[in-house]
Amino acid sequence: MSESIEHGTSRTVGDTHTLHFLLHLPHPVEEVWPALATPEGLRGWLAAADVLEPRLGGAIALHWLTTGEGEATVATGRITAWDGERVAEYTMASFHGRIRFHLEPVGPGGATLRFTNEFRGDDDLRLDCLAAWHNHFEYLLDALDGRPVYWSAWTPDRWRELRAAYAGR
Question: What is the CATH classification number for the domain harbouring 155?
Fold first, then answer.
């Protein structure tokens, strides 16, 4: 992996979890935005965007490629916030809930990514999601460095390692 990702944090009220990650990226906003808000960019680190209408209220369908053979996780929803090169928020009808990316420029060649994921579920799902987002953000760093993930070679090994680390925190 290119650089390390700080552990995400979470807050729980009832059965609603809010996860937060703060990433300091050595890439300008102009390079990071397409990775968060275009089908080509999302595929390199997160999921295939089968549908992405880049506007407030637009449709989105994300097809996660980190599943076993014969399985498919597809989440559909709407774009609930859109501010070109700053904010992309996808609210999914599935357990993925609200996914928000907020970019801020830092200096001449860097960016800060503030990520929030709000969803409902039990504590096991919270730990699963913390580990999954952490793993995907490692892939994001690699993709920004020109090394997108090869989904056909994906295994859950790193996710399991991260899941155990989050469970132990």
Answer: 3.30.530.20
Residue written as token pair 């990226």: 25
pTM assigned to the model: 0.94
Q: Which pair of structure tokens corresponds to residue 150?
A: 């090869």
Instruction: Domain count for the chain, please give it.
Output: 1
Q: Are 65 and 40 in contact (CB under 8 A)?
A: no
pLDDT bin (cut points 50, 70, 90) of residue 95 is confident
CA distances from 138 to 40, 69, 83 (A): 17, 23, 25
pLDDT value for 152: 86
**Integer-rounded Cα radius of gyration of the chain:** 15
At 71 the pLDDT is 59
The enclosing H or E element of 101 equals strand 98-106
* Mean pLDDT score, 33-48: 97
Instruction: Kindly give, in sequence order, each residue whose CB lies less than 8 Å from that of residue 6, ignoring residues fewer than 6 positions away.
Output: 21, 22, 23
Domain coverage including residue 153? 12-167
Res 1: pLDDT? 40
Contact 141, 39 (CB under 8 A): no
Asked if residue 77 belongs to a domain, the reply is yes
